[in-house]
Amino acid sequence: RDSSQEVLEWRESFDQLLKSKSGVTAFHTFLKTEFSEENLDFWLACEDFKKTRSKTKLASKANRIFEEFVQSEAPREVNIDHETREITRKNLSGATSACFNEAQAKTRILMEKDSYPRFLKSASYQDMTKQA
Q1: 76 shares its domain with 103
Q2: What's 30's domain CATH number?
Q3: Domain span holding position 25
Q4: Where in the numbering of this chain does the RGS domain appear (predicted)?
């Protein structure tokens, strides 16, 4: 499958975009222009977190992700409601690979409904499709 075909597939679904390494890179670059890349960075951190097998690494990674993205006033705070933030905080006490699932899902929905359509309409994506 060549890259031009891949670029065109990104508009089929948000999943297609997220499955593509170059799609994630292009989307990330776009989000930077909107100053909202923390949502994607959080989503990617959660995906990486789920692959962690060591219990000790799980706990330390969970705390790092929470401090960077989830807690109120976090340096790269994601836009989630107070209830989801609290659920996630409680999940940290017994950190499992699923402790960010709800926050990650909310962030994903936000990107899919908000940022993704703007990405598809963006000049940078339009240029990529013309080249494809």
Answers
A1: yes
A2: 1.10.196.10
A3: 3-34+115-131
A4: 13-129
Same domain, 43 and 90: yes
Chain-centroid distance, C-alpha 105: 9
| Predicted model pTM | 0.94
What is the distance between the alpha carbons of residues 81 and 86, in angstroms, rounded to a whole number? 9
CA nearest neighbour of 33 among 122, 104, 121: 122
Cα(129)–Cα(101) distance, rounded to whole angstroms? 33
DSSP string spanning 40-54? HHHHHHHHHHHT---
User: Which token pair is 31?
Assistant: 């989000």
The pLDDT tens digits for 48-64 are 999 999 988 999 999 99
CA 83, CA 93: separation in Å to the nearest integer? 16
CATH number of the domain bearing residue 75: 1.10.167.10
Q: Which of 27, 49, 51 is CA-nearest to residue 37?
A: 27
